[in-house]
Amino acid sequence: MFLSRNWLKEFVNIPDSISAKEFGDLLTMHTVEVEGWHDQAEELKGVVVGQILEFHKHPDADKLSVAQVDVGEAQPRQIVFGQMVKMHVGAKIPVALAPTTLPGGKKIDKTKMRGEVSEGMLCLEQELGLKEDGVVIHFFDKSVKNGTPIAEARGLNDTVYEIDNKSLTHRPDLWGVYGLAREVAAILNHELKSYPLKAVKSTGKGPIIVHVEEKKLCPRYMGVALEHVQVAPSPAWLRERLEAVDVRSINNVVDLTNYVMLELGQPMHAFDVSNIHGGAIIVRRANKGETIETLDGVMRTLNDSMLVIADKDRAVALAGIMGGEESGVTQDTTTIFLEAANFDAVNVRRSSAQLALRSDASMRFEKALDPHLPEVALARFVELAKECIPGARPLGAVIDKDHADYQEPDIELSIPFLAMNMGIVITREQATDILKRLGFSVRAKKDVLAVSVPSWRATGDINIPEDLVEEISRIYGFDNITPVLPSIHLTRPQHNASRELEHLCKRLWAHDLGWTEVHNYSFVNEDLIKKIGDDPAKYIEIANSISREWTHLRRSFLPLLLSNVEKNMHEFSDIKLFEVEQVFLEDLGGPKLQEGKDELLPAQPKRASGVVYRQGDEHPARTVKELIDYTMQQLGVTAEVVQDNTPRWGHPGRCAHLKVGGNIIGVFGEVHPHILKRFGIDSRVAVWNIHLDELAERADERIHYEPLPKYPPVRRDISLIFDEKTSFAEVMKEMKGVDCSIKYIELFDVYHKAGKKSMAYHLTFSNPERTLQMEDVDAVFNKLVKHMEKKFKAVLSGS
Amino acid sequence: MKQALNALKKEAERTLKKITVQSELFELETALLGRKGKLTEILKGLKDTPKQSRKAMGVFANRIKEDVLRVFENKKQELDEKQWASLAQDEWNDLSEPALPVKARGHLHPRTIVGEELEAVFKSLGFMVLEGPELESDFYNFEALNFPSNHPARESMDTFFIKNQPGWLLRTHTSPLQVRAVQKYGAPIRAIVPGRVFRNEATDASHEHTFYQLEGIMIDKGISIANLIAVMKELLQGVFKRTVEVRLRPGHFPFVEPGFELDMKCLLCGGAGCSACKHKGWLEVLPCGMMHPRVLEFGGVDPREYSGFAFGLGWDRLVMMRYNIEDIRHLNSGDMKFLTQF
Fold it and tell me: Chain A interface, mutation test: which of B114, B135, B149, B294, most A Cβ atoms within 10 Å?
């Protein structure tokens, strides 16, 4: 929304000593966010009144002329110009003096045009940002002195602020100049001029009767007819005011409805009475499928949740949103019916959303307007019409169908409560003064203020004492509140083990093991789900997805990790990516929908997952195993690796589950080559997935101190040849059980050959009671070999 | 005998001068001072020395022996030094070479790097770190945060809804945890909630439908606006590791009253205006406010007894500011050209 400082100044004194920036900052700091401003005088400062002394055809260009122009300097300037407008000697026109920049950013520099020097530019209105289209140049009166800045010569001394509409959503009163003037008056502690209002005096029967069917959706409907209307261009001041805030001038009637809306925030509409069938206006719900062509020329189909203004036969306007094309004001209109009404905010907002039609009117109505306003707006229109629509006069009495609920709540505000909330010392008098400046009425009883909320703030914005704390503190100035750190009771914050674990794991994986963390969307689609061999029905579906690419919530990281590989493999031959996030499992119960109720949201456990791809690597699962082993070791978790129940996506011989205490806490292995094919991946890929939440519960102290051994340990290596498919884990389990003097077993080499594999271990023997003798160690060693022979048909290597 | 001793000393001195390697020195030492060496031989003559001069002769012999030993010692040292003198030449290594094979470095996501720092700052001030479900209920995302069902702010949140589950949605902010946390832990409480949130809006260089926030609340007796400003300032100083200037201006969010936008004076231009702050001199860094009494009530806390404030940090914005990242979409792109820079 645009806000003109000159318009504001009609209602409140704003000293010129407050600069454009300072004034913008005041609004931002106390009321609404100012996004920017433009200062006409500042922007036009390089453009002055110049007089053409003489001109002739450019010797070297048919369409150009060369003029000598008096711009109030010692010497005239030579300026080359085109043939957009016919020029004559003696004409006084706007001249941009090189070097300068015009509004809109066009730079004017001293140049040579086909050999002729040009020291500026003769400016059209459009080039000065004063008119949007057409070819118009402003000729100044002979009395204007050459060299006068045109902003001064034409009274262009306004500053126009752009206000962020989002910062106005809760403030219906600020959608008009007067409401903002009230704020400015409160901020500057200046007087707010009362709004000029003379009630419309007219009696008798008018041409239109009004019937409101939907009193809840239209709490108040006011209107009055005006006859002897002559539709014509608006007077210059009205046009300029509207154009300054970026509203196009159309004709005097429409401009005036817009003017009143911009000033008061109350939208208005003018109907041509000759196009209202049956002399009746009915405020009713639209019929399902009813159509109306709105003023923007679009035919719209309505439904029965929408409110319309209708005549006997058809809808003539969308209530609170936009008028109809057929009933609007035209050049031939002589009698108008002027509407100023109050519509239900929620209904206007919903209808405008359903129709995808937002207008200046709907933006205001959807904020819940003060039901007092229609009366003020009508009076203001009629008053201004005297000047802008000469001859027009009311025909018949003002119609007022008023069913509004005038809420003006009383709120009790205690001063100690106020002071505690603000964290400063504030007196009853200060608080009262601020509230009164904002239009609240206040009665003080000792420490408590009884505050009456004015009608323009009572439609939802101000209800509770905390709302008044805001009013007082923002006018008092947040900058005037001295920051104070709170003094509190020390409490030990709850330890979040799973978050700590997450941080630790990420660092292990990235810093120790060289993996790279990726963040993918939480979304997948049916195609991706099917590519990994899964069923889309198991996935939670978004009702209003952003695109067909992202329709379901992911249960697993796999599809997106494989996509990551596919996208990166052309530039990276070594890819190790991991991600930690929530997944969405509809088949399991998660957090409560609401405290005190049994219903549950889906489970959303936090999972860590990764993918490895190395061009040409036939055994990527080994890189994953390195990560799994290192992680478990660092976390002090003993996990069992169980090679059964291959997951749907998995390579049947190269996948395993991780189990702790019989519970699955993860899975890893190679992705089935046919799935990789579907993703267009040219080399083997392995993945892993760890249930981080469950792991956090299992993580333990990884360091177990033991007193130093009294007797020296004995070390010996063993190398055994097994069948290729023998599990290391099972061998390990068996070895550990052979004798208690085998203290450590460490695999240091594996060698595959002809369906066999040889595994070599370092063995450490020790006995807490005595020094082990050669014979002792030999005995255990032989026992071990025998057991391995029996259990696995293993053969001692080299024997 | 005296002569013999002096001769020995002379011989030692003379011969040593010619010696250039350790082994020769060792040989000479054995020949002169060894168990069967010349000195031992000479000293055998001591017993033939007249008794009255024997003591003096002994002293003399000892002095000579020490002298000779000293000369040997000096020579040894000389040879040692000579041996290491060419070390730099003989054994020079190029230490500018990287150790091979180069160990591939891994990379944390920039969000993680900044997030861990943020959490550390908050933990140092006694805040707990909480997490909550990304698929939330309408109740916690809106209702309990004082967005009644007809509230326009609800519609402005661009919410993703779930098919056939009217009460479910993807959380549009981390604020649902305000009520969940208070219900679980009661008051007083200090907590932050880092996490992923969703808005159904078109993406461009500064908008994402999936992004990260960091929510915070503090509830205690007598918490005021003055406290809020001070704590926010403290936090920002912790985050940016330097003194910052902040200002509050009005902002509207249904779950706080009063509500604020907190701006920080631009660290790049110091408030003069630059491209980073869009020539405003101030950066909008966090929306915040005093917790609405209805939100406290939903959490089961009596607003007459406790008050508190809440704030939301745009985590992704901080990441982008820290590393001068020009396009928010890089963060979720999975592009290793981006990820491997951190």
Answer: B135
Instruction: Please report, for the domain that includes residue A53, its CATH number.
Output: 2.40.50.140
* A487 occurs within a structural domain: no
Q: Which residue in B134, B236, B320 has the most chain A C-beta atoms within 10 A of its own C-beta, making it the best mutation to test that interface?
A: B134
DSSP structure class, residue A663? E
Let me know whether A507 and A427 are in one domain: no
- Quick one: A529 and A559 in the same domain? yes
- Mark yes or no for CB contact B334/A595 under 8 Å: no
Same domain for A26 and A52, yes or no, is no
DSSP assignments along B158-179, one per residue? ---EETTEEEEEE-SSSTHHHH
Query: What's the CATH number where A440 sits?
Result: 3.30.56.10
**Cα–Cα distance between A172 and A71 in angstroms, integer?**
48
**Using the beta-carbon criterion (under 8 Å), do B196 and A464 form an inter-chain contact?**
no
Residue A788 domain-assigned (yes or no): yes
Cβ-based contacts under 8 A for chains A and B:
241
Domain count, chain A: 6
> Where exactly are the structural domains of chain B?
2-86, 110-339
One-letter amino acid of A647: P
Chain B hits for A541, CB-CB cut-off 8 Å, are 162-164
Contact yes or no for B257 and A576 at CB 8 A: no
Q: Of A478, A506, A529, which one is at a domain's C-terminal end? A: A478
Residues A288 and A329 occupy one common structural domain: yes
A744 part of a folded domain: yes
Q: What is the enclosing helix (H) or strand (E) of B315? A: helix B315-323
Token output for B89: 């030449």
Within 8 A by CB and 6+ apart from B243, the residues are B237
Q: Exposure of B339 by Cβ count < 10 A (0-12 exposed, 13-18 middle, 19+ buried)?
A: buried
CA angle A270, A275, A281 (to 5 degrees): 65
> Residue B293, preceding bond cis, omega within 30 degrees?
no
CB A66 within 8 A of CB A92: no
Condensed to tens digits (0 to 9), the pLDDT of residues A621-676 reads 999 999 999 999 999 888 899 988 899 999 999 999 999 988 999 999 999 999 99
One CATH from 3.30.930.10, 3.40.50.300, 3.20.20.70, 3.40.980.10 for B110-339: 3.30.930.10
**Domain extent for A140:** 45-153
Q: How far apart are the C-alpha atoms of A627 and A510, rounded to whole Å?
A: 11
Q: At what angle do helices A428-437 and A177-188 cross, to 10 degrees?
A: 150
Scanning the structure block, which residue is given the tokens 């206007």?
A348
Helix boundaries (H) for A118-230: 150-153, 177-188
3-state secondary structure of A690: strand
Q: Tell me what pLDDT residue B256 has.
A: 95
Asked if residue B189 lies in contact with residue B166, where contact means CB atoms within 8 angstroms, the answer is: no
Identify whether residues A37 and A62 lie together within a single domain: no
CB A657 within 8 A of CB A648: no
- Kind of pairing, strands A209-212 and A280-285? parallel
Q: Which strand (E) or helix (H) includes residue A36?
A: strand A34-39
A177 and A127 in one domain?
Answer: no
DSSP state of A149: B
Residue ending a domain, among A131, A153, A175, is A153
A555 and A659 in a common domain: yes
- pLDDT tens per residue across span B224-246: 999 999 999 998 898 888 899 99
Output the domain CATH number for residue A626: 3.30.930.10
ipTM: 0.85
Average pLDDT, integer, range A758-784: 92
Quick check: A103 pLDDT over 60?
yes
pLDDT for the residue numbered A200: 87
The tokens 């749907």 sit on which residue?
A: A648
B105, B123, B155 member nearest A353 (Cβ): B155
Q: At A435, which helix (H) or strand (E)?
A: helix A428-437
